[in-house]
Amino acid sequence: MTTMKIAVLPGDGIGTEIMAEAVKVLKALELPLELETAPVGGAAYEAAGHPLPESTLKLAQAADAVLFGAVGDWKYDKLERALRPEQAILGLRKHLGLFANFRPAICYPQLTHASSLKPELVAGLDILIIRELTGDIYFGQPRGRRTAVDGHFPGSEEAFDTMRYSRPEIERIAHVAFQAARKRNNKVTSVDKANVLETFQFWKDVVTEVHAQYPDVELEHMYVDNAAMQLVKAPKKFDVVVTGNMFGDILSDEAAMLTGSIGMLPSASLDKNNKGLYEPSHGSAPDIAGQGIANPLATILSAAMMLKFSLNQPEAAARIETAVQSVLAQGLRTADIWSEGTTKVGTREMGDAVLAALNGAQSGMTTKTIKG
Ligand code: IPM
Ligand code: MG
């Protein structure tokens, strides 16, 4: 087996703590993996004066896959936009062409009661948000008009961002969504705001055109406001949700929280060849950074997704997923998913438990694997 190169980018806040656990798990797999770590986000700004230094970008470009922690901290809010930690992840997405963002929202059987919704609404929930990641208002022109470091817009009484999508951008994400639905329950909900925005009328038209090539997949269109409502009313009615960058940002947080455990959810951002960046769905949580209490499972499961989607190692991915199920079945919980009657553990203990379970996985356990 040839060596697989992984760029490890822990980032800021809890990023370093959760990444340490994922790296520990990856190393235990005895696969020919070469892990190389580089700074990104605020950590890179401190070290090198830029959130995405050339050396970090080069490492990510040369790697077979990227494992990413999280970036951001309020202390950088006053920096000019180009230097803020978030630019690291946006830059990686753009430079690596990572247009397809898979954000599964799975309600793990052991965590049904962690949701703020009634258990019957979320029990067995398994939906996949596919967010377009390199277009939309995120990358429209002009951007970054705030140049002053004191947080003001000098000499300007307005600010604007441009929402735009091109036909090829919509076509390729629509294909990804229909193909993912074929591996699941053959249903795609395309979320737009076609009643108000031209960009999203165009989106709707192009998705409808592409759908002609997938007659076996059911397609429904839904306005974003209604989708936000349906997600809390009857989330299990969804299978694959495909939407633009901005709506996808918002709806994926909502969907993740339905499961009661944003600390559990991995994500993948893929290019046209399935090379990808893998990151937990949650952020850098500076408020709990350094305390050793963050949940490392989303990052560990992101590593599993990486093994499956980009490195063609489905067995190793399944081993990790089974190990995670096993620690949950043992009743181990970090603070974010803790409830009465379960055992509260810290970040490192959780990683250690996954490691132990990797080698002694119990048989007969039903494993929730991420499909798509
Ligand atoms: C996400 C995050 C990012 C986004 C930020 C950190 C730039 O919220 O990955 O969802 O808005 O895409
Ligand atoms: Mg977000």
Molecular structure report:
Helix content is 37%, strand content 17%. With 372 residues, the chain is α/β, with parallel strands linked by helices. The protein has 2 domains: 1-99 and 271-372, Isopropylmalate Dehydrogenase; 105-262, Isopropylmalate Dehydrogenase, CATH 3.40.718. Strands 2-1-3-10-9-4-5-8-6-7 form a 10-stranded mixed β-sheet, sandwiched between helices. It has a two-stranded parallel sheet with strand order 11-12. Helix 1 (15-27) packs across helix 10, helix 8 packs parallel to helix 9 (245-258) and helix 10 (297-309) runs antiparallel to helix 11 (314-329). The radius of gyration is 20 Å and the shape is globular. It starts with a strand and ends in a 13-residue tail after the last helix. Bound molecules: 3-isopropylmalic acid and magnesium ion.
Secondary structure blueprint with pairings:
Elements: E1 4-11, H1 15-27, E2 33-37, H2 42-48, H3 54-62, E3 65-70, H4 86-95, E4 100-106, H5 119-122, E5 126-132, H6 167-182, E6 187-192, H7 198-211, E7 218-223, H8 224-233, E8 240-243, H9 245-258, E9 266-270, E10 276-280, H10 297-309, H11 314-329, E11 332-333, E12 343-344, H12 347-359
Parallel strand pairs: 1-2, 1-3, 3-10, 5-8, 6-7, 6-8, 11-12
Antiparallel strand pairs: 4-5, 4-9, 9-10
Helix pairs in contact: 1-10, 1-12, 6-7, 8-9, 10-11, 11-12
The chain binds 3-isopropylmalic acid (IPM) and magnesium ion.
